[in-house]
Every structure is written in C-alpha cells, then in structure tokens.
Amino acid sequence: MATYEEVLDNVTLQASEIIARKNQNEIVSDLYNVISEKCENGDLINELNGIERIFYLCQTFESEMNNGGIYHFYQSVSGNFANETVEALLEIGAKHTALILDKGNSLFKEGIVPEDQDARIEEIENLDYRDVSWLFDELDREFYLYEDNLGQMNLEYVLANKEAFM
To answer: Which CATH number fits the domain that encloses residue 50?
Structure first.
C-alpha cells in the first residue's frame, strides 16, 4: 500500500505532465481532477499550496454553479469556502464573478458565510424564501452570461504559475 507521500509525489508528477502539454485544451479539467485527488475533494484543502488552492476554489465554484447554481453551491461542501472563493476569483482576474458571489455572500449575517455546512444550510433555511429566491435566480442569470471566461482565466493562471504545480 502506497504511503501518503508516495501518492502526493505521483499527483505532483501527473500535474507536471499535464502542464507541460503543448495542447492546452484539457489542461484545466485534467489538472483540476489531479488537484481534487490531492486534496480529497476539499477534505484536505490545507494540503494544497496557495496557488493550487486558488485554482481549486475557482474551478470548484464554476463546477458547482454549472451543476445547480449559487443555491447549490451554498448547500454543498464547497460553500464552506465561499468567503475565500471571492478572493480566489479576484486573484485570477474574475472580478465580475467575484462580485456575483460577494452579492450572494451578503445574504448571510454580516456578509460572512458560515464555514460549517450545517450552519450555512440552517441560516439559508431561516431566510425568507420570497426575499432570496429572486436574488439566487438573478445571481445565476448573471453568472450564466459568462462575462468572465473562468476556463480561460484559470488556464492563464495555471500557465503563469506552472512551478507551483510541479
């Protein structure tokens, strides 16, 4: 059975090979799979370096939005990092998308999203659905306009920070 260090070495080798590709079409999705494996889908997010973490948060947010919108994001484990994801989106240059998430975050007490999934869900459920459903719908609509091309922005971020993935 492989040790955790051996698994990490293999993940790092996989990431290095992905980034070195000439064809950039699948770099982001393949690298996301490797980074997700490394951090066990966020359970071990502290195992990621700062660059990997930003990449992971941005990709996870986009994935959650495409799988069910902002309400789905907050309901999922990924919502544990909602506050930090705003900063990650800004780091890759996705200002419009960061603003969308920040608007959603403002629904929570003092604009701070609980990092505990159960507490976050409870807080959402305690909001008046009539007051928030339209906002969630509006934020989803704004996101789906794709003013920020997150795939391209993540690719540029990865290529500008290659050494952090190797």
So the answer is: 1.20.1420
